Structures are given as C-alpha cells and as structure tokens.
Amino acid sequence: MEKLLEILEEIAQGADVRSCTTLIDDHILDSFAILSLVSELEEEFDVEISPAELIPDNFNSAEKLWEMICRLKGDN
Amino acid sequence: MSYHLLTYSLLFLPAVMLMYQLTPQKIRWVTLLVTDYIFFWLISGGLIIWMLAATLVTYVVGRVIAYVAENSTAKGKELVRKKRVILGCGVILTLGMLVVFKYLKVFGITFIAPIGISYYTLQTISYMTDVYRGTVKAEKHIGRLALYLSFFPQIMEGPISRFNETAYALFSGKELSFHNVAFGYQRILWGLFKKMLIADRLAPAVIKVFSGYENYDGSAVAVGVIFYTIQLYMEFSGCMDIIIGTGEIFGVVLPENFRQPFFAKNASDFWRRWHITLGTWLKDYVFYPVSLAKPVKKVAKSVKGKFGIGVSKFVAPTAALFCVWLSNGVWHGAGWTYIFYGMYYFVLIFIETITEAPVKKFMEQKNINSEGNVCKALRAVKLFVIVNIGELFFRATSVTQGFEMLGRILGKFHISALFESNLGMDVYDVVLACLGIIIVLLVDILHEKGVSIRERIASLRLPLRWGVWYAIILSVIILGAYGAGYTVVDMIYAAY
Amino acid sequence: MKINKNLLKSAGFLLGLFVLLLIMSAVFHRGRFADVYDRESVERKINEVHGEKDNSLEVLFCGDSECYSSFCPPLLFAEYGHTSYVCGTSAQRLCDTYAILEEVFKSQSPQVVVIETNCLYRGTSVDGDYKDGVLNFLTNKLPIFAYHSDWKNFVGSVVGTGTGKKGSNDLKGFIVRNSVNPYKGGCYMVESEDEEQFSDDTYKYLDKILKLCNENNTKLLLVSSPSPRNWTYARHNSVKNWAEQSQVGYLDLNLQNNLNIDWDTDTKDGGDHVNFAGAKKVTRFIGEYLSDVCGLPDLREINGYEEWKESCKAIYDLEK
C-alpha cells in the first residue's frame, strides 16, 4: 500500500492522494496519467491490468486501486 | 422530422407523452420502442431494417459471450480468446454496416445511409465490449437492448450513451411528473433559443464565406470562420439541450455532450468538454485498448531499453492517441478534411503532452502564476484560435481550400475591408447575434460555477417566474432567424 | 389534488402565453405592406428605387436571386444606353413583386417590366413554407410569426436609423458574383409536352401585375434566366402558354444557343445562378432585345443621365 501511495503521489502531483476519493471524477488523473500509473503498477506489483479494469470505480481512490491490485494478484 | 422543428416539440412530443402516460406502466417500454421505430421510419424509411439487424446482432453476441463465459470448459486465457473471437465477429458485423454505408463511397459505391448509423453503431460496440469485459451483464430482454439502441431523441446525433446509463430508466416506464415535463421543456426552449436566435442567424455568413472565400478579404474570412465555430457550438449544443430535455421529460438522464468547452485550459481539456460522449467512447474503446495492447507494450519496452523511460513512457499513449484521432476524424466521414482535422488535434495534443512538464518548470522558475488572470486570458485566446483553425478545416470542402482560406486570413488581412464585405447579415443581425452570444456566455459562466439556472428561476415568485419564461418564448418567436430572408438550417451533426 | 393544481397552473401559463401572442400579433400586423412576404426587403428595395431620379428608369427587373444575379443595369446602359433597375429581392414572391411595382410606379414610368420567371414557382403570400408543419400553421394563423422580423423596424425607429434607408446603390440592384463553380450535368432542356402548372394564386397575381402594367402603359416581359438547377421544359411550357394567352412577350434564355453560356465558367454555384461572366452574356442578349424588338431609345448622349456614366465606371472597375 505504501508503495502504491508513493507511485500515486509522483503521478498526481499536488493532490492529497491518501484521502482523495474523486481522483477520476475531479479530473486529477487524466487518461495519460492513468496510463503511466497502469504501467508503473504492472511493473511494481507484477499484475496485468486489462482495459476492462480502467473504470472510474477502480481508480477514484488509493483504496480502490489497492483493492483492484489485490484482486488481480489473487487471479494469478 | 428533426429535433429543432416546432413539429417535434409542439406536436410529436406531446403526442408521445400522451400515449406514454395512457399506457399501463408495465408496457410503457413498448410504447417507447414503437415511438422509436416510428421516428426512425420518419427519418430513414425502410433503412430501419439495418438498425433492426444491428440490434439483433448485438443481442445475440451479448448472449453468446455470456453463455460461453458460464458454460465453456475453457479456462483463463483460452476462455478470453474464445470470448474475444465472438466479440470480434459482432464488432465486424455492426461496424461493417457502418463502413459499407459511410466509406465505400471512396471507391465510388454509394448507398443512402440510415440516419443515425454513426451513433447507434458506437453504442452497439460499447455494449458488446462491456459484456465481454464483464462490466455489463448481457441483457436477456431484447426489448431493453432495442430501447437502448434506438431511443428517439438520441438517434439522430447522440449523445452516445452506455447501456447502464439509459437502458434501465428507459425500460422502467416511470410516470411523467410535472417537474420533469416542465424542466424538460425549459431545456428544449433554451436549445431552440441557441439554434433559432444565434446559429441560424450566422448561417448565411458562414455559407457565403466558405463558398466564395476568394471574394473576401482575410478579415471577412476570419469572421466567417469564427461565425462557423460559434454556429456549430450553438447548433450542436442547442440540439443537445433539446435532446437531453426530451430525455428528462421521460425521466431518462442522458449524458451531457458539452461542458462550457471554450473555458477549457488547452486542446485536450477542450475535448473533455466538447462532444464529450464521443471523446469518452474513443477513450474507453480505442485509447485504453490500444495503449494496453501487447504489441504496443512490447515496442514501448524495447524503446525503454534504448532511450530510457523518459522517452518510452510516451510510446504507448502516443500510439493510442494517434488511433483515437484518426478514428475521430474518420468517424465524421470519408474525407481528407476530416482526417486532417483529426491529425491536427493529434499533433496539438501530442505537443501539449510532451511540453507539459517543461512548461510547468519554466513557469515556476520565472515565477509566473499560471492561474493569474493574464495567463488565463492568453490561454483562452490561444485555445479559441486553435479551435477555429480546426473548424476551418473541418468545414472546408478540401484541405487545399482550408489552406487557401488560412493564407487569406494571414496574408490579406485588412480590418477596414471587413465593413465593406457583404456577409448577408445587416447591422441588426450582427448586434442581435452578439447579444445572443453574450447571453449564452453568461449562462455558461454560471454553469461553470455550478449554478443551476432552472432551479433558480423555479424558486422565483410566480409572476416573475412566468415573466422570465414568457420573455424567453417571445424572444425566440420574435427574434428567431426564420421566415423571409432566413432559412431554417438542418441539424449539422445529423449528417455525420 | 396536487396534480390538479399543477395542471391548472400549466393551463394558466399557456392561456397567458396565448393572450400574449394575440396581443403581439395585433401589434406586428399593421401599417402598409401588411400582406407582403418579406417586408424588410420590399421596403429596402422601394427606398432604393425612390433614390433614383423620378421617371428616369426605362426598365425594371423583378424576380428572385436569379434576377439580381443575371441582369446588370450599368452594363445595359454602357453598351445599349438603357436605364434600368433591379427590383429583384432574395426569394421574392409575387405578392412582393406586386407591392414593389405598385409603389415604384408612383415615381417611375418604365416602358418595360421584366419578370424573371423562377419566382413564379415560389409561394405568393405571406404563408410559411417550412419543412416544419407546426411553424407553417402558426405562421398562417398568428401574424406574430409571419411578421416577427419587423422588430428591426421597431428598433430602427427607436434608434432613429431605420432599416435600409440607404438611397440608391451604385450597381442599380445588381450583385456581382465572381466565383466559379461549374455545372457538370449536361443538357437539361429536353423537349417535351409536359407542363408544370403554377398555383392558382400565381395566375391571379400574374393577371394583377399585367393589369397594373397596362394601366401604366408599360409592357410586361417574361424572361427565364439560364439555370439548369431551376429550369425545365415543363416549366417553359407553362410560362409559354400563359404568355401566349395573355399576349405577353416571353424569352427563355435556357433555349437560346446563341447566348453561348459556358457552364464551366459562367455559374457561381453549379448551375443555380450565373456569375458575373454569365450575367454579361444575359444582359447583352436582353440589351439587343430591348433595342431591336422593344425599340427603346439610346440615352447615352442625352443630357440628364451623367450619373449613369458613373455607374458604368463602377462596373468597368470591377472588370480590372
């Protein structure tokens, strides 16, 4: 989780990534940021994120992101 | 039949509302579906069979994917591959119809396309893909899917909605409520205001400049181009008001297509505010899939090895961005001007992306406040110029014409010649158009600040409230650009 | 109970609106030219012609955009010495033609009135002809819809400028269009016996206009300007029949081979209207006809027409 926050902080500069729950809805992460986030996460956590996962529900907060990563890790 | 006609809002719509309200709730969806098909018949006649075919294909593909997912013995990658093949077949079939109708004319084979095919085809693809991805459950009831693909206000020019956004509300057959009907009609009135008062008033000048730019000074050409941009905004967003207002009447929340686009920060922000549903569609079904595709990732990896992450992180998004803008251009039609339009935005947004970080650094170093008023104003002007150049090529009959017009604006610009140019509008037209634009601008500013104007008006005391609506209705009737000397212009985006 | 209250309110709102529309209709339906289609254009045109010296015009050209694209008065004067004015307005209907002529005859005594025939296939009254049935209905029933554009006059009279209070214009109503957009459709006047009848009201108005001309000792002449987009043999036959019955001259330039229209260069919009190059050919043809057949005198060397020579200069400037 800490690692995730680190990555997130780097990409969404200036945003309070710990408590924010509207990363997508408030356009803090645009589609380019999402892509860099995805590639970082894939490398860091060794998961494969498919386009189907790219929905606001999974990306709106650090917590949701962590849930997704855990789920994907479980799938492997 | 067309949304901007009074026949639609004052005759067709009330008739539909009456029929809808009179049918028992359980089968109201049938009333809606019959209305949808009558409406489609009115605009496209027998070509409706193509939409029925697309509906059937979409339904079957959705069901088969669901069946395979539940019953197939295959697991993991094998299952994904199977599902992908089925999805591929579905997309080829519905997209194939679009290609045949819209693009075969490049080879000299022309068919008359059903109106709306560009819009409902995108909805078929989004539904099938979402079922494949598992974000939407395959619909068992074909009626619900048919409703989703054919809702009559959406069919001619969008908005492009997702299954979950509209299908259930359409099917539920909710009672008409006084509040919904009143608010819906208020929004329709606002759409008519934009279309009749402003868009159609600017239309003659636009036609004159684009069809005979050789006769005009660069200043007049520039004005013609700006008028076109404004006309397109007023007309497209005005029709959206009518469409979304209609949805509101039936308790269906259609997605917004415009969000004060001219207040955007830059070109990519503009596209998150202009024709939004096309943008998000392209993002979800072109941008992400392409950038996460295996071959693209592979290339990115090898680039990383050679040039490092600073370069490689741009590979996947850029490839995807290229596909998005090529699709955006081509979706508008088979013409070089549209492809140019797409590529124009591809290049702009690409530049914006790679310069974002350096520019930010530079601003910080020089201690320039990028949120200051001067910066904001400069940004707005820059964006307005960018958008106008884009629309110039979008409207031109050929790319060459686009460049010739641009050359005229840059090379033969004499502000004094502007007042001698005959743009087919008198002083009154110009003044009124400007007033109308200012009103829309003010409303946009309020919307940007999150103020709901209809709620505000509704909270006024009765005489005042009615007075406001009477004034708007009368201004449309008296100041609308129809009748002698004007032509009511067909909806521009219904042609795409 | 709540629903009833809302229904009552809605009914009240609509009733109020209806009353308001009736009042506005009464306000807008007033004064002269109460029954013309495009009041703004009619008034502007009349003001223009009143700007000409009294009894100085020999020929008036009436009709829609075909008219002001095809007939070039300065050229007609420069080469044949006939003074004329284009009274054509955009999408002119016969009710407007009549209103303009009636008014112009008060200050002018032309020898020939030319009507370009494309306007015979337009409406003849103020009624709407939109694709929009409800808008048509409202236009026909509630004058506020028909005369709404009059707001310009209201505003004009308040601000004090008025619309189109400009005097005459240099090109005498002609509009120069230089752009070229070829017509590629080939032959369009295929001989046939078909007729495309005018509406009953068109016949009525034609008779009225003919009577008006006769009362003013003016010859009426019908001319079909070359236009593949608008003209057909069936239309030709109908116009010819009426012209013969009424003993009125009729020239169909679509059938005149010696006009030498080149559809690659002489049209501005793919065969809808002729451009300046085409207009020159049409005007010269009409000039010959007016001199030879109608016997109009050459006024070039007569005193009192100096101002016309200025106009000629304007047209030659355009050639450069």
Task: Explain the overall architecture.
With 76 residues, chain A is mainly α. Chain A contains 4 helices and no strands. The longest helix of chain B is centred in the middle third of the chain and has 34 residues, at 178-211. The radius of gyration of chain B is 24 Å and the shape is globular. Chain C contains 12 helices and 5 strands. In chain C, strands 2-1-3-4-5 form a 5-stranded parallel β-sheet, sandwiched between helices. Chain B binds chain C through residues 2, 5-7, 10-11, 178, 182, 211-212, 214-215, 422, 426-428, 466, 469-470, 473-474, 477-480, 482-486, 488, and chain C through 3, 6, 10, 13, 16-17, 20-21, 24, 37-41, 90-91, 128, 130-135, 138-139, 144-146, 148-149, 151-152, 155-156, 161, 163-164, 175, 177-179, 181, 268-269.
Note the main attributes of this structure.
heterotrimer, A: 76 residues, mainly alpha, Non-ribosomal Peptide Synthetase Peptidyl Carrier Protein, Chain A, globular, C: 320 residues, 7% strand
Oligomer: heterotrimer
Please summarize the sheet with the most strands of chain A.
Answer: none
Strand content of chain A: under 5%
CATH architecture of chain A: Orthogonal Bundle
List the topology elements.
The complex is a heterotrimer of chains A (76), B (496) and C (320).
Chain A: H1 2-11, H2 31-45, H3 56-59, H4 62-75
Chain B: H1 6-22, H2 28-44, H3 48-71, H4 76-103, H5 117-133, H6 142-150, H7 163-172, H8 178-211, H9 218-249, H10 267-271, H11 276-291, H12 294-307, H13 309-312, H14 315-332, H15 336-365, H16 373-395, H17 399-411, H18 415-418, H19 427-448, H20 453-458, H21 462-479
Helix pairs in contact in B: 1-2, 2-6, 3-4, 3-5, 3-6, 4-5, 6-7, 8-9, 8-19, 8-21, 9-16, 9-17, 11-14, 14-15, 15-16, 16-17
Chain C: H1 2-28, H2 39-50, E1 59-62, H3 65-70, H4 73-80, E2 84-86, H5 94-104, E3 112-116, H6 133-141, H7 143-146, H8 151-159, H9 200-215, E4 219-224, H10 233-245, E5 249-252, H11 276-292, H12 306-319
Parallel strand pairs in C: 1-2, 1-3, 3-4, 4-5
Helix pairs in contact in C: 2-5, 4-11, 4-12, 5-9
In short:
Chain A is 57% helix and 0% strand. Chain A is an all-alpha fold. The mean pLDDT of chain A is 82.
